Please model this.
Amino acid sequence: MKPGCFIPHMGEYASPEAIVSAAQTAEKLGYDSVWVTERLLFPVDPKNPYAAEPDGKLPQAYRRVFDPIEALTWVGAHTKKLRLGTSVLDMPFYNPVVLGRRLTTLDVLSGGRLTVGFGLGWSDDEFEAAGTTHNKRGARADEFMGVLHAMWKDNPAEFAGKFYTLPKSHIDLKPAQKPHPPIYLAAFSPAALNRIARLADGWHPVALPFPAIRGMWASVLEMAKAAGRDPKELKLSIRGNLHLTDAAAGEGRWPFHGNKDEIKQDIAAARELNADELVIDVTFSPGVKTAKDFEAANEMVRELVG
Model:
């Protein structure tokens, strides 16, 4: 199970220097990958609760966020081996042709180290700012993936859909990874899990109990087989949002919330699921208040993962 960690690209202590320092330290510690997330807005009066926190409130770190793609480009220029992951880019915010070129550029400039994590978003405030809506997100996502596959695999490339169009065009710049960077989807609904089975390279769940992950992953593999794919080709990349405490959180706790012994239990549970990788985000752990705290937390997690 390959270890991955986040870098400090958001919050008061996020800076170009902190991003590079954390990434280079992660590389020295033997992490396989570093990751960034996406948060477009910190609404004053949010229209939706934040599902990743028990109280539904957005963490204060989301008030100041570096763009994920530019942050990873910066990291790629200052590291040699680390894979660079997005956890996750919200597809409704982007045009797939424009984003496809940006991701291709990042993969080429980094020497083929990009892993693309996609989601569908949840914030009505962010949808409004991006000029889109919740409507037809699933159908749009299918076409979005179709455009990327065409751009990355075909030349000339073309796509004609209801929502997106790529006129037949020569696109000579292709990703360094063949046929393209791995694409993971963060998904929970049956339709979204089916999208993984048909179109993606893996699943990137977060904040789900391990029994739920086991059941959903089994469904994805069955759907992949039904779609004519080899289930062994799909990867499970689990994200854990660390909330480290001195006292045990006890029964009913969220995954990766609790003391060190409980975090070890979660790491073992991820390993029992034969996860290809485990990515830990220490950003919101109570003891992380500075960039140095961030690096120290990543070092502690690396020791726990082993």
User: Anything to note?
Assistant: The longest helix spans residues 137-153.
